[in-house]
Amino acid sequence: MPQRVALIGLDCGTPQLAFDRFAADMPTLTRLRQDAAWGPMRSVVPPITVPAWACMMSGRTPGELGVYGFRDRRDHSYGSLAFASSDKFTLPRLWDALSAERRRSVVIGMPGTYPPAPIHGEMVSCFMAPSTDADFTFPRELRNEVQRITGGYHLDVNDFRSPDLERVSQQIFDMSEQRFALAGHMARTREWDFFAFVDMGPDRLHHGFWRYCDPEHPRYEPGNRWEHVFRDYYRALDRHLAAFLESLPDGTAVLVVSDHGGQPMVGGFCVNEWLRRQGLLVLTEEPSGPTRMADAKVDWSRTTAWAEGGYYGRIFLNVAGREPQGTVPARELDATLDQIAAAIEAIPGPDGLPMGNRAMRPADVYPEVNAIPPDLIVYFGDLRWRALATLGLGRGLYSPDNDTGPDHANHAEQGIFVLSGTGRTPGRREGLSLYDVAPTLQDLLGLPRRAGQRGAVVE
């Protein structure tokens, strides 16, 4: 018999923190696990917010969705990156399947939902909305209730990569409290079959404060002002979770889940500077200071490859007949990619030891590749190093800092999965995948498995 299902999304929820280090500080989640199928859950490639949540809700890979990050190439021109708005996700997500059966969903803060599309139910879209002046809800008039209930809705933490840690920490705590309060209000006052909300608080906390809380971080200082902010936040998060669970109807299945985990960021690797030193990226003019790739003076007629940075690196080849001034003959594309991938994987760290890099072709990772993917997906140091695309940093290839503001964490491949209230045998599960979420929720909701979906039902 179909169940109601409530999904509580904790962006960057990390098993080493939620299940281990702060288990005693999170009694609600720990009790929930006693009646749950739970365990660490492998994310997608790449393990980042967009497209991971959309993959979770559709059961499809980034390649099938044709979305590989927050920004993807619109075309094969240079500098054509565009944000992944909701209209880029053309394959149905869980609420779409429910809407087709006239069953109601309430969706709050789910990444990849701006601008909000009509559903049978209600939607408060995500942090990708430019502001609350935009149409960030469906239906449109819902925004008035959201603003009234919250006293001014926080889509996200403003400039979370900031040295103003007092402000950032306060906004993180406030945003999570507000998100859970709004979710509780809507869970109590609506009829629904599926309820889902995502709190970005853990992600923003990890990026802003990891170095202050983790003795394993290379820049940790014992006794610092922020040493216990992780603990304090996870305690608050658990209180919010307890209050939200009280708002749910009896018999609701509950899934607490994250899209990826977190880990210390050792530093940043200057990937475009490395391409320059390999003779693969050629400039007509030396940068006078830190310069974004989009603003660099590139001699495309002599350039083989360039990169975009972020939590992971993306390498693009300058292919003849594909890019406007392509230099790599199509017949040499495979060999060129093999050479670049091998060179990347051989890069040593600043200590001379192997970094442990991985360079992957999308066609080797995904069963189907749509839209315009990167030619190589690169994890530097198994994601312990951020990919820095900025040129002219003047620090060699290795930087202790991020190039877009203070950041002390990077993403990790293991997130969290806690499924309670289903009657399934409780206990830790091994080998869980983010792709298991959609078929599992469909099974609980009495929806058929859709053709082409990945993953398996968690029993």
From TrEMBL:
Native species: Sphaerisporangium siamense
Hydrolase among keywords: yes
Name of the protein in question: Putative AlkP superfamily phosphohydrolase/phosphomutase
InterPro entries for this protein: Alkaline_phosphatase_core_sf (IPR017850), Phosphodiest/P_Trfase (IPR002591)
A Pfam family hit: Phosphodiest
Keywords, in A-Z order: Hydrolase
Membrane-spanning parts: none
GO molecular function term, any single one: hydrolase activity
SUPFAM superfamilies: Alkaline phosphatase-like (SSF53649)
